[in-house]
Amino acid sequence: MERNLSSPLNSIFLPTQLPLNATADANVTIKPFSVFDGCEQQVEGILFDIALQCINVVVGIPANLLVIAVLIQHRKEPSTSDIFLGCLAFLDIYFGVMTPITLLNLYHWQSKGVWSSIKFSYGVKDTSGPLFLSCICLDRFVAVLFPVTFGQFKHNKYRMSLTVLVFCLTFAYSAAKVVGGLPNFEKVFTGEVLVIFAWMVLCNAFILWALKRSRGAGKDEMHPLKKKAFITVLYILFIIVFNYLPPVALFPFEDYYTPDVFRCYVQPVGFAFLNVSSTIQPLVYLVRLEKVPFLSDTLIKKWCTREAGNRNEAPPVQNPPAQVQIPIA
Fold first, then answer.
1. CATH number, residue 209
2. Which of 189, 259, 269, 329 could form a disulfide with 2, with the two C-beta atoms 3.0–4.6 Å apart?
3. Phi and psi at residue 304, in whole multiples of 5°?
4. Is residue 252 part of a domain?
């Protein structure tokens, strides 16, 4: 269920509208503004979501800055998915910056105007993350299963067009979220996350299947590079399931919960797993790098030597082949 209308972190109480023929002295109760939306006595789910958002501030923002730094360093030899990764990192930084503002507005300002800007940031996170991840999955899917077609559509103009489309959809959704009151608007996010989750799982499953069957003639073992790619994609699939399965599994069954339980517990917990993707996604990208910006070579060599000493197998005699570059969300 879309959190603009019922989630306590994204909702506001609007004054009850008077009928057209009401007089000024009519006895009408006006609900005061509350950022907790009736969950003042049931804040555990909300605090869980806020705690994970604080992780985005402490870890996610620096990690996304490092991702952008890596993309800038590799701009002369860019990957086809770099534009999607860069936009995703930038918007995740924007979402992380809004977390301190959310905390201040929860416990100090209590401002409707500030809450509108916070709701806009939630709309950006709800839409941009899944859509850009879908673009990365599409790019990876075509590259592995249809390499000839991938070569024909390798020009950046196609990815720029997809990026513009994603930004348009994101800002349209976020603006509608701020305005509110649209009929059945709460179903938009539920439908979006269900479709995108299914799409990303299918893409990664087909990629894993293609890598698994791509063995040399008469060989039982997968090529080391393809095996490494297989493990990488499998790890990405696990991250996608971790971030998106909770809202996919919980939100379509709103009618089975009481309104208070769904609004105060189910929604904040489901969105917490989605929100923490702002930290998990850049970390997954960074751990796959051979060189991380601002870390000395001495530290990396020392760590690699320690890891090699803990292994039971002997180090290879020959130099390993070049690493296969796979776009990572």
1. 1.20.1070.10
2. 189
3. -65, -40
4. yes
Instruction: Give domain status of residue 58, yes or no.
Output: yes
CA distance 190 to 203: 20
CA dihedral 226, 236, 286, 97 (to 10 degrees): 160
Q: What single string gives the DSSP state of each residue in 190-258?
A: HHHHHHHHHHHHHHHHHHHHHHHH---TT-SSPPHHHHHHHHHHHHHHHHHHHHHHHHHHHGGGGGGS-
Q: What CA dihedral angle connects 205, 208, 204 and 92, to 10 degrees?
A: 150
Mean pLDDT in consecutive groups of 10 residues from the start of the chain, 329 residues:
48 40 46 62 80 91 93 80 91 92 83 86 89 87 85 86 94 87 75 87 86 63 67 78 87 81 84 90 82 57 49 46 45
| Single-letter code of the amino acid located at 44 | E
Residue 301 lies in a domain: no
Closest alpha carbon to 277 in 324, 245, 315, 318: 245
pTM as predicted? 0.75
Q: Which long-range contacts (CB under 8 A, 24 or more apart) does 65-72 make?
A: 65/89, 65/93, 66/282, 66/286, 66/292, 66/293, 66/294, 67/282, 67/285, 67/286, 69/293, 69/294, 70/285, 70/286, 70/289, 70/292, 70/293
Count of domains in the chain? 1
Domain membership of residue 244 (yes or no) is yes
pLDDT at 171: 93
Residue 122 belongs to what domain range? 3-18+27-290
